[in-house]
Here is the input.
Amino acid sequence: MAACVILHYVVNDAFIAEARACEAAVNFAMELGFMSIHVEGDSLTVIKKLSSLSNDKPIIRPIISDIKSKLTFFKKITFSHVGHRGNEAAHVLAKAHHCFQLPRYWIEEFPSEVEQAVFRDLR
Here is the structure.
């Protein structure tokens, strides 16, 4: 339904990058007024932290806490882990980020390569 690309500079840890992407998805869904969302990610650690009460990974703790503070905004929010092959659309967007100097948002219309990746993800 919607997608975005937001540049994050000086992110030197994969966990932080994945947590920031999840945070951006939740913020974008809030801005659009979605009340029920499903967030998929290929970082099992980030997905587990969002689904648990513990905060034992200090490097992503502030980001996870920020996301969790927004959960009450939604009637329903779920997080699930998908492997790299099931998350191709996100990777297509991530590779395209260098084309955009500013955040880029799409609602109901996407670049054709992203739309094709979504259909491949659904298989």
In short: Residues 2 and 45 are 24 Å apart (CA to CA).
